[in-house]
Design goal:
This protein is of the alpha+beta class. Among the domains are: 84 residues, 2-Layer Sandwich (Uridine Diphospho-n-acetylenolpyruvylglucosamine Reductase, domain 2); 195 residues, Vanillyl-alcohol Oxidase, Chain A, domain 3 (3-Layer(aba) Sandwich), CATH 3.40.462.20. The protein is built from 14 helices and 20 strands. The strands form 4 sheets. Strands 12, 13, 14, 15, 16, 17, 18, 19 and 20 form a 9-stranded antiparallel beta sheet that branches. A hairpin with a 4-residue loop joins strand 8 and strand 9. The protein binds flavin-adenine dinucleotide.
Length: 460
């Protein structure tokens, strides 16, 4: 190692000592064992080599970190769980929010969660009051990362997006100021934080409305992959006729034979129809019976359940995964769309994906929020998501083929949660032009020195 490099590393360590002395949380450098434990994301395929991990415990710690970064020439990123990890390299401080773990549920129907909180503790704390949050397909995802990307969950057609329910954020902006953000306090930030992810601020806590839903009728009904054509054909017509109390999707699974995977689903292609019904259980059961009658059901998990069982609808994996998960949005899902999908990703197609899912949108999802937001995809009719092992060389070329096969119905957009904006190109898919310009204005105003890493896309 050269003397110059040695000196640079010593200076870097000295300056991080200065940060350490201002925090109640901790600073971890690459040679410290907590560094990997805290920075390794759920998405194991995303490389994370930040200059340091800042494990914050308070909002003041976030203020100190952003001010320190601003004056010492670092950029700052933020991670709660790493489900939507964004690579972090040298010269970068990664704020890990796990220590911001407060959860308060108010029985009159709203909750407050710190930025390190996942959906599961909110669901558990709300359940005794018969209340439920608008979490996503798995309660293992972080409340803030999910909500700032819009947040389209298994009740989206009944109640809309998680972002639609936000009352307030508490944030630290790139200029190092702590701010409370509501429809009337910093409304430009209130706009940008509901869809714009962490481009404009690091959220320290969020307050949001809950819905009254002690129980739901739903879960997933699984068929053999060989029956996919019949079931998908019926699902198309059936889903189109459903009222807004129903949110549904279907998934082509190719799950390995491993612990946690039900034997009926392991080692072959299966098709799961997911269904969450917020109305009377008997009506929901009757509606789902129409699908059950189409082909032999190999596993039936749908029933009347407490809301705490909501993860059973999508049955997402919980353990960290080395996967890639490309996505797109469709205007509609016709008989031709279904045929093209199944030709490339259905039974006998040789698809290498672990799963390919189609979610039906519409209903409350399609209606504008009470206050304008930075979510640009209300008009999309369906979402497509594929998940495959990152190291499998067949996975991305196969996605390219699937994307090409469905391109006739491509809206040109992707949810910020399913295609996080990293640069000008990905940002153009995540946002329409007007929204992108508004986010860029907010970024310039609150982060004039470009301290927040994810704001990069709005500056390019
Ligand atoms: C298995 C799985 C299931 C999913 N299901 C759904 C779903 O049903 N619906 C849906 O909409 N999305 C879904 N997602 C996508 C998920 O919502 C995004 O990946 C989201 O960003 C995850 O947030 P996180 O905090 O858990 O992840 P992290 O990787 O910790 O954060 C991801 C990003 O969120 C932002 N962020 C996180 N914390 C903060 C903060 N404190 N302040 C500002 N910005 C912050 C940052 O941009 C950060 O880079 C799913 C993802 C996975 C892996």
């Amino acid at each position: 190692m050269t003397i110059a490099l040695d000196r640079a590393i010593t200076r870097h360590h000295d300056s991080l000592e200065e940060l350490r002395s201002c925090l109640t949380g901790e600073v971890h450098l690459p040679d410290d064992e907590q560094y990997a434990a805290l920075s390794t994301p759920w998405l194991l395929s995303v490389p994370m080599q930040p200059a340091a991990v800042v494990a914050v415990r308070t909002a003041e710690d976030v203020v100190a970190t952003v001010r320190f970064a601003r004056s010492h020439g670092y950029t700052v990123g933020v991670q709660a769980t790493g489900h939507g990890a964004h690579s972090a390299y040298a010269g970068h401080l990664l704020v890990v929010t796990k220590g911001l773990d407060e959860v308060t549920v108010h029985p009159e129907g709203w909750a407050r969660a710190g930025a390190g909180v996942k959906w599961r503790p909110v669901i558990e704390a709300a359940a005794p009051y018969g209340l439920a949050p608008l979490n996503g397909s798995t309660s293992d995802v972080g409340v803030v990362g999910y909500t700032t990307g819009g947040g389209v969950g298994p009740m989206a057609r009944t109640y809309g997006l998680a972002a639609d329910k936000v009352r307030a954020f508490e944030v630290v902006t790139g200029d190092g100021e702590f701010r409370r953000v509501t429809p009337t306090e910093h409304p430009d930030l209130f706009f940008a934080l509901r869809g714009g992810k962490g481009a404009t601020a690091i959220v320290t806590a969020v307050e949001f409305d809950l819905v009254h839903l002690p129980t739901f009728y739903g879960g997933a009904v699984y068929f053999d992959g060989a029956d996919a054509e019949r079931v998908v054909d019926r699902w198309r017509a059936w889903s189109a006729s459903l009222p807004e109390q129903a949110t549904t999707s279907f998934v082509l699974f190719q799950l390995p034979d491993m612990p946690g995977v039900p034997p009926a689903l392991a080692g072959r292609m299966t098709l799961g129809v997911r269904f969450l019904w917020t109305g009377a259980a008997d009506e929901g059961r009757e509606l789902l019976d129409q699908l059950r009658a189409v082909a032999e059901v190999i596993l039936d998990d749908a029933d009347l359940k407490p809301y705490t069982a909501v993860d059973s609808v999508h049955a997402d994996p919980v353990d960290p995964m080395p996967v890639v998960d490309p996505a797109m949005l469709l205007t509609e899902f016709t008989d031709v769309t279904a045929k093209r999908l199944l030709d490339v990703a259905g039974y006998g197609s040789g698809s290498p994906q672990l799963m390919v899912e189609i979610r039906q949108l519409g209903g409350a999802y399609a209606r504008d929020a009470e206050h304008p937001d930075a979510f640009s995809h209300r008009a999309a009719g369906f979402s497509v998501l594929a998940v495959g092992i990152a190291e499998d060389p067949r996975v991305l070329p196969h996605w390219d083929r699937l994307y090409a096969a469905l391109s006739e119905w491509d809206t040109g957009g992707v949810w910020p949660n399913f295609g996080p904006p990293h640069d000008a190109q990905t940002a153009r898919r995540a946002y329409d032009e007007e929204t992108l310009q508004r986010i860029a204005e907010v970024v310039r105003k609150y982060d004039p020195d470009g301290v927040l890493q994810i704001g990069e896309y709005a500056r390019s």
